[in-house]
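for the writeup, i need someone to sanity check this before i put it in the appendix. the sequnce is what the collaborator sent (i think, or maybe the updated version? ugh). structure was predicted straight from it, no edits. if anything looks off just tell me and ill rerun, i have time this weekend
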Amino acid sequence: MKTWERVFVGYFGVFLIAVGLYVLVMSGAAPAWRYLGGGLLCLIGINAVYSGVTGKRSWLSRIGPLP
């Protein structure tokens, strides 16, 4: 993974963590959906930050090219 890719993935992971925390705290959805959606976004964000630091492929990059 190139340096600029690692930086982008790391910042995108921080963004996903922030969105996940926002969903956990501010969402008006049912608690089960709120915890599931917010927790999943935080988990994917944490993985993206980890992959940006270590240079490994993140879970999002394994789903293939998106249109």
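The mean pLDDT is 91. The CA atoms of residues 3 and 55 lie 9 Å apart.
thx in advance!!
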